[in-house]
Structures
1.
Amino acid sequence: MEKSCGVVLFNGQKVLLLQYATGQKEGDWELQGHWDFPKGHVDKGETEAETAKRELEEETGIKNIILSNKFRQTINYTFQKGERKIAKEVVFFIATTIETKINLSHEHVDYGWFDFTSASKQLTYDNARSVLKEAIIFYEKN
């Protein structure tokens, strides 16, 4: 099973979403893919929280965050990679930031700071919408 960790990043009443690239054309990522939260694979020796923070920084340039250790939401799914079906687990944390400037990685083609309703509509997958719903409930209570 592959494992990734990510961040539902809040800035006031906005949440950050990234649009992932889906393929390469002549060496450049340019095909527009799904919208999701910043996330990525766990490196050997990293904790889940360390992975989430590292991936956020690599994908957005944002370093100045406050990560909550009281929110941990997990989703599981399978995807096709060539002839193989791969099981995947993704662990999400909540973080807050005052930074708004994004330095988008080569893995992504767009980003946006969305209000909660727009973010729910923008997300591509239902499991991400479920994570967002739980994250908003937690965020508004804390």
2.
Amino acid sequence: MHIPDTPAPDDAAVPPRPALGAVAIGRNEGDRLLTCLRSLVGRVGRVVYVDSGSTDGSVDAARALGAEVVQLDLSRPFTAARARNAGIATLMDGPACPAFVQFVDGDCEVVPGWIELAADRLAADPGLAAVAGRRRERHPDASRYNRLIDAEWATPVGPARAIGGDAMLRADALAAVGGYREDLIAGEEPEMCLRLLRAGWRIERLDAEMTRHDAALMRFGQWWTRARRAGHAFAEGAALHGAGPERHWVAETRRALLWGAALPAGVVAGAAVTPAAAALLLAYPLQIARLSRRMGLEQAAFTTLGKLPEAMGAIEYHLRRSRLGRPRGLIEYK
């Protein structure tokens, strides 16, 4: 990985705020990591990069840009939650602990102006634990899968139940709930947010650009694996917190299993009795037509199709859960 000369950012004249820190996480992100770190260095007091076993020179490149580097122990399974916890632990281990921490994935660039806006919002409302803005795909037209992800990021502005990997959090609030749950291979942010809400904190999504994400999702197989990971996260989240009043990810898990497993199984079983059972497959185009009224045909079609890999992920979680002691690996799509 090379480190080319970079022009000063548009807001380079804005001095870094010592009450702010940043944690970036990644593995083998290449030049995307350099873009990420450049969007942070000089805008916050300290930047910590947590590396999960990169082999592309990311560690040296991050140090050259002025970031503090934490390399996770290779003997323990990697998870994003573990990386984020390691990052904030490093930030808080010093004489000048930040009040607010910007978390960002290593394939994202923080938009100029976001850090100042988010910090001001948290400072103005002591009851807010976290704020997030709009994450956008850097190249939405590079593939239909990038375009679908960009639409997925368009979440409502205002009070929120969850945030993603990019967000600014109040350090004390995160510490009060014990940080991220490190054994989750996906869905660790909404699970942490649920614990924040239960503790009386609030979360808000601001009407502002926050980060540019480079999904680089160019193949159908990548999209399928990503959806399978989502199904795994739904099932695990429901198993952990579904009995609570929030019914955390219960509906998402049920939809995945209904459309992605129960209905196909019903068609196969019914076909052994009567060919008319194939008529059940008409439920899929009808569902697409229903969803397309609010999200467009392409997104509706892939949302419906995505229930198949989501069901696979949910079933995979339950199979793993029934085999106690079996190690769980990451479900990676790139």
3.
Amino acid sequence: MTGLTFEILNTDGKARTGSLLTAHGAIDTPAFMPVGTAATVKAMTPDAVAETGAQCILANTYHLMLRPGPERIERLGGLHTFMNWPGPILTDSGGYQVWSLADLRKMDEDGVEFRSHLDGSVHHLSPERAIEIQRLLGADITMVLDECTALEASKDEVARSMRLSMRWAERCKAAFEERHGYGLFGIVQGGLHPDLRAESAETLQALGFDGYAVGGLSVGEGQEEMFRILDGVAPQLPKDRPRYLMGVGKPADLVGAVRRGIDMFDCVLPTRSGRTNQAFTRNGPLNLRNARHKDDPNPLDNTCECPACRNYSRAYLHHLVMAKEILAAMLLSWHNLHYYQDLMAGMRQAISENALDAFAAAFHAEQEAPETDDNVEA
């Protein structure tokens, strides 16, 4: 019996709406998970994150194993208590972060040895240790340890890496402690090669997981290539398990991926953009450094109910940005996360009404060309 309960409520084409029940509550799908890498969603309180409509957040094994350490977090009551987030938490295994440390790591069959980016200390992360860390953290959804490959890697390199990840996935499955309300997701790898993706998906299904992620995308391949891979992979995954596209993405990416049968997403984009003066709106992104906003009394988006839109003008937000006030990052991050959650809620409703095609057409029609920076105040 699976540790997680996933119920599909309706389908519209390949898109699905459903409910994923975990030990710390339900996740309505399709779902976007804000990224709380180091046990915090940057510039946001947990209460504020919940007020955007988010039900599940992502935290990162690599960062938390280095600081403050999983054993310390367990002694302090687990990650939910530690960061005061009562809802579900998914933890990324750390494979992507270790992969990005190309000059600081050595990888072999047993796992990966790497030097901390914080102090240079040496650490070893095996599939078994990755599972142990996520258990100590108390993650509702645990991810297997995998290796990501660079976009320019040869097919032979991608195949070797994918098969190593599949052997690691088997070890992760063996190490995972089955508990009601807690689950383990496998990760499909294989780069941009449909045959390798199919092999990976088949291998993971034979092992049996509570959910299936698609990894190794959003690494520079572009939306068209990403959608091409999803067109092939999504139908190869079990219909009765959630499907998670890792590290994606822009609003249009989410709409396109949901239409291809993806249920879950995470990305740093809404919060990172909030810290770099960009706001996502129904009519496209805005650059709040742009001088055209300095006398504008209107909200970022007159259809949005977030605090930034209810209480502040574009002119004031522009002022905060130019003055480099911390409140700018807080309000823009809140707005962006609220926008993303509104987008997901809109898609869930559209799928329930068998109207996703019309929703997507309206979404694309409303999105305007992004602002240029030719009128930016220095």
4.
Amino acid sequence: MNVSAAGLRVLVTAGAAGIGRVIATTFADAGASVFVCDVNAAALSDLLASYPRVGVTTTDVSVPEQVDSMFSSAVSHLGGLDVLVNNAGIAGPTAKIEDISEVEWERTIAVDLNSMFFCTRRAVPLLKAAGGGSIVNLSSIAGRLGYPLRTPYSAAKWGVIGFSKSLAIELGPSNIRVNAILPGVVEGDRVDRVVRARAEALGVGVEESHERFVAPISLRRMVRAQDIADMALFLTTPSGQNISGQALSVCGDHGMIA
């Protein structure tokens, strides 16, 4: 099975830390030329220290003007584009719907959904010029199961799936494949923060909140960021050349979010 990314020109949003960093470094290790944007300048510097050939720039992908500037830098570094990984996202508020502010709602939708539109509309002409390519959009199991107390996040992630499926139909004739990856509960600082916030919202202990996270998972464990990166690599290399329009869960068989 060919999972080499040699020759691919790859852009990863929010690629300096967490899942995004693992995706970016997995592509780099597989031979791709990689460009990463992130809002965290310190994380970008840390990535660059370990991967000096990776292009980086500080960008808030929810701001169209910053996306335009980022794409100019990416094209200058990569010389074109073959793969876009729309990874940027935030957790949003953990609260009852009546306690969520308009600002919290709009910020979550802006980062988790609008940013994919801003980046994709810039990427598609480049992918067409390359003769085709691949787009991978990070959704979530919250985009197929729903997520109580996290309605802005879940709404955005459902939107990502519809966005991805529609694009796959639209762009297929141009040899551009589009898929969504739906991570389950991924080990790391971000989920640790969500577990703590949910514990506070429910009035339970952190340990109980953690147990509620893994109880609905058949494998009774969280997934790794590397699992998500491996799926992204598979989808965008020749091994995944006939996979498009799919919402692919990497979750250990997660049945319900409690």
